[in-house]
Amino acid sequence: MSAESTPEPGIPGGTGPTGPRNRGQGRRRKARARRRGLMIAAWTAAGVVVLGGTGLGYVYFKLNGNLKSVDIDQALGTDRPIKADNGSENILVLGSDTRSGSNKKLGGGADDGSARSDTAMIVHVYKGHKRASVVSVPRDTLINRPACTDPKGVTHDAARDVMFNSAYSTGGAACAVKTVESLTGVRMDHYLEVDFSGFQKLVDQLGGVRITTTKNIDDPDSHLRLKAGTHTLDGRQALGLVRTRHGVGDGSDLGRIQLQQAFVKALIDQVEHVGLLGNPKKLLDLADTATKTVTTDSHLGSVNSLMSFADGLKGIGASGMTMVTMPVQYDPANPNRVLIEQSKARLVWNALKTDTAIPKAATTGTATGEAAGVVAAS
C-alpha cells in the first residue's frame, strides 16, 4: 500500500477526514492553492493555526526581521529525550500572557514585564504529515519542575508541586520545554509561542472566526458575553473566548481548554477557506502580523525555515486533527488544581513516542471541565 493511501493514526473513533479520497482533482488543486497562498504559522488557544506560504520573497528581509527565536538546543544541552526517527514531529505551542506593552491591558495586571504560559499544547504530527494529535496541558496542573536556567543565565532549583505554567514564568521557553520533556519523556522538536495582542490582530485580519455556541457565555473577567447561537468573533471576542474559565462548564481551566480546542479547529477551518490569493495587501499584512506575533526555536527562526515547516503541515486541516487534554484528576486538597493521572498519561506519551493512535482508554474517566459541546465551528 502506498504512503498516500495508508490510513493515518489518530484517536480510534475520533474525528477524521470525511468523504472519499478520490474527490475531483480541481477541488484538491484549489484547496492546495488556498493553503499555499497563506504565509506563516500561528497556532493558538493560544493555540495553533498553520499558515503555509510561497511567493513573498520580495518582502523576505522585512518579515525575517520581525521574527524572534530562542536557541532551545543550546539552553538544554544533550540531556534530553532521544529524537524520534519515525518521521513524526512534536511541537510545543505556548500562548504567552506577557504583562508588558500592548499585552498589559489584554493580560491584566501590572506592566512589570512578567509572563506566564496561559495556554500549552503539545502538537504531534504523524508520519506522512496528514494528521496530527494535539494534547492540551492544563496550566493549573501540579507538577515537579526540573532545575532550569532562565534567559539571563540564572539557574533555578527544581521545585515540587508547583503549577505547570510556573515553568515558563520562572525560566522562559527553555524551561517550559525542559519541563514538558521531563513530564512526558517525549522530545520536543520545535517550539512556537504566540502572544495575546498578535493573536487578536491576526483574527481581525482574517475577518473574524465563525463559531456556534450552544449555551450563553457571560464572563465579566474576560469581557465576553455571547448568546447561544452563531457568531463571527472579532479578535477581542476570540481572545475572550480562549481565556474564559468562569463563563462555561465548572469554571476550571479544563473547561477553558475545551473551548480552546473547539476554537482552534474553527480557526483552522477559517484559514483554509479565506481567500487571500487575490488580495496581496491582505496577505502581506497577515504575514507581517504573524511574524511579529510568534517566537520560535532557532531552527524555525527564519522566514525560509518557517515557510518550509509550514509547507510540510499544509495537508493537515481541521478534520485531520484530534484534540485531547492531558489525563488529569482534580486535586482533592484544592479543587482549583489538577493532578496528572499517571497511568493514563503514560498511554498518551507512549502513543506519541511510537507515532500511534492515542487509545480511548487514555482519556476515559478523567476530569473534563464539563464544557464539551459549548462551542463548535460553523
UniProtKB/TrEMBL annotation:
Pfam entry (one): LytR_cpsA_psr
Residue spans crossing the bilayer: 37-61
Source organism: Streptomyces galbus
Family as reported in the entry's similarity comment: Belongs to the LytR/CpsA/Psr (LCP) family.
UniProt xrefs under PANTHER family: POLYISOPRENYL-TEICHOIC ACID--PEPTIDOGLYCAN TEICHOIC ACID TRANSFERASE TAGU (PTHR33392:SF6)
Leader sequence segment: none
Basic residues bias spans: 24-33
Name of this chain's protein: LytR family transcriptional regulator
Domain Cell envelope-related transcriptional attenuator: 116-272
Taxonomic placement: Bacteria, Bacillati, Actinomycetota, Actinomycetes, Kitasatosporales
NCBIfam families: lytR_cpsA_psr
Keywords: Membrane, Transmembrane, Transmembrane helix
Region (Disordered): 1-33
Record's keyword annotation contains Transferase: no
